[in-house]
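Section 5.1 Outputs to date
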Amino acid sequence: MEMKAWEYYDGIARDYDAMYESPRWILHHKLVERFLGRYLTPRMRVLDLGGGTGRWTLFFEEHGCDVLLVDPSEKMLEVAKKKGAKKSMKAYAEDLPLPDEYFDAVNLQGDVLSYVEDREKAISEIRRVLKSGGLVFATVDNFYSFVQQILLDFSLPDLKRLLRDRTARVGTPDRYFRTYTFKPEDLPFEGFELLEVRGVLVFEHREETIEKHFQEIFEVEYEFSGDRNILWRADHIFFVLRKKERGD
């Protein structure tokens, strides 16, 4: 059954965090933490949009930021509150009940822009609530990674759909939603300047090898994450945007 992304995550909220405890996902998160680190300042006002169970909210709070977690899934928010997220709100990215030019940064980890129902509205709202010169931190699903995955499984209907409208199925055969996949050339969006783009996990690794040689693999992945020549290989695309100031 096809559903909306937030409905899918509402159904797995209690198990969500456990799904991301494998060595590969730990590596993903540690890389993104390093990518983000150079941009953080104490008391930075951050909107963690689509923040789910609060993993990144807690990360920003630990770095002294003032964070508001917003997500459309009540059950994901319940988990986040139990984990200690200080401020949260149920809302949709396309219609944020928040003031103009209020936040220093908007965080969109977990491929939020791939999952929203109306990307243009969501991007417009993000631009509205960001201060002039404010930052966007995001990961999105990589089109080329999904092409590779579908070719390995060789599902011709899924391949045709991906090539036609850039969407792919996420979930199980009986419960899934559609994700919109991005290409690096899709960046930046109107009204933004691209500061940085990186691939998250550009090489293949066995889980047991990551576990045994975590730091060495981490350093190799970090070194090559910014190489545009191999960005297409990455599981996800990480990027940082700056909202253009008036007159830019």
